[in-house]
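User: Hello! My lab partner asked me to get a predicted holo structure for this protein. The small molecule is glutathione, SMILES included with the sequence. Please write out the structure tokens.
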Amino acid sequence: MVAINENAEEVIAEVPVVEGEAVPTEGELAPAEPLKNSYTLFYFNVKALAEPLRYLFAYGALEYEDVRVTRDEWPALKPSMPMGQMPVLEVNGKRVHQSISMAEFLGKTVGLGGNDPWEDLQIESVVNTVNDFRLKIAVVTYEPDDQIKEKKLITLNKEVVPFYLEKLEQTVKDNEGYFALKRLTWADVYFAGILDYMNYMAKRDILDVYPSLKELVDKVNNLEPIKEWIAKRPQTEV
Ligand SMILES: N[C@@H](CCC(=O)N[C@@H](CS)C(=O)NCC(=O)O)C(=O)O
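Assistant: Hello! Below are the structure tokens for the protein in complex with glutathione.
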């Protein structure tokens, strides 16, 4: 079920015996297994921007440390993060930031990337569209002035949500139930992972009248390793 590409460090290469090539005899050292990457994910104790990354870790059965920083711990930790924000992914001791770039890295690591730059572009353009949409919802949610917020909320629900979701719904229909390439890619996992946060910000189920999108999210959430992650993950409101 879990497709892992040949670059994934989890895969222990099966070396085929090629005629004419020397085969290690007894006593000779067998080829070393590729080293496993060590991963630590730093974020707050919420799903939000880190959940797509946690979904991808689960999908690829990659071991990682899921560090959940408390509000009290954050001020002391903030200066040690590349841009003073989280999520941050530490790979073999090196810290990187930007959740979408990290999702792309993990997506490719677990075999959910494109097969060439053109295919990668199909995936990335959907993810960036989902991110534009998320930011438009966030602008309303975090508006401090109540009167302005009320007005923005009307535009959000009447115009912004239908604009993005009608287009994304059509994209899924055009791709036989997926966001890109007519197969599962990290764009699908990204969307399923970020959806709870978007629903939380919009204060409703934004997919209520978008059956293809809903079906896609259900399909991702029902992939065995992701289903297991959802069942065991810390319960948080956001
Ligand atoms: N573009 C960044 C945004 C990161 C971001 O906004 N992080 C927020 C939490 S969601 C944060 O660290 N806030 C705490 C702070 O800025 O001190 C990404 O996608 O990773």
